[in-house]
Write a structure and sequence with these properties.
This protein has 249 residues and is of the alpha/beta class. Helices cover 31% and strands 22% of the residues. It has helices spanning 2-7, 23-34, 52-55, 83-88, 107-115, 133-144, 168-173, 217-224, 233-247; strands at residues 9-15, 39-45, 61-66, 80-81, 93-97, 100-104, 125-129, 148-153, 161-162, 176-179, 205-208, 228-230. The strands form two sheets. Strands 2-1-3-5-6-4 form a six-stranded mixed β-sheet. 35% of the residues are buried.
Length: 249
Amino acid sequence: MEKLERKKKKYGLVGKDISYSFSEGYFSNKFKELGFIDHTYKNFDLDTIDGFPQLLKVENLCGLNVTIPYKEKVMPFLTQIDSMAAEIGAVNTIKLTKDGPKGFNTDAHGFKESLLPLLQEHHKHALILGTGGASKAIAYVLKNLGIRLKFVSRTSKGDNINYIELNKEHIQQYTLIINCTPLGTHPNVDERPNIPYKFLTKDHILFDLIYNPSKTAFLKAGEACGATIQNGLPMLQLQAEKSWEIWNS
């Protein structure tokens, strides 16, 4: 019994109001398929980031995923941060090492690999809806692909565009639009970012980081205008597998 206890490996997701999350089911099924009966994955739903240091003391904890709203807030608690995650400014994967918790960002990998098959020559400008932790990884990928970007937020700050400022010219120029906000997530499926959808065309890509529902109000509006649409499920699966690779490296 003592020998089995030492072999146990615990993983989990850190976030707030995450009962809907994909990760717990995904990794639990993965462990079952691999026959890893000593591996477990669970949600760690924290009301505030103040509970994070105590979470790190969980016995046999090996790795964590991080979601809204803590991708930036966990960073001060980590002893090491991977260079790419540091450049992005957000962490969504943590590996517990002998030297302490180390932060990584696998969102960038997941987004890039799911976006590349959709891109065409004319997709040179992108609007990023939202300015949270996930949007930082999106911006990192777009910059590295040479795609010019603008952030859209509820308040005008710096070079950001306010939603109420968006017009036909913006939509015509920015043919790649990525929703990094939680608007439209189950159960509030009728919500969507406030952009002028009537100006969308078949030349647009609408990419939604949300995966539940599989077709958000944002994506439905794009589809109705002939745009190419993509939800966040492929990105999530890719980043999850990258997390698993990091935990086992």
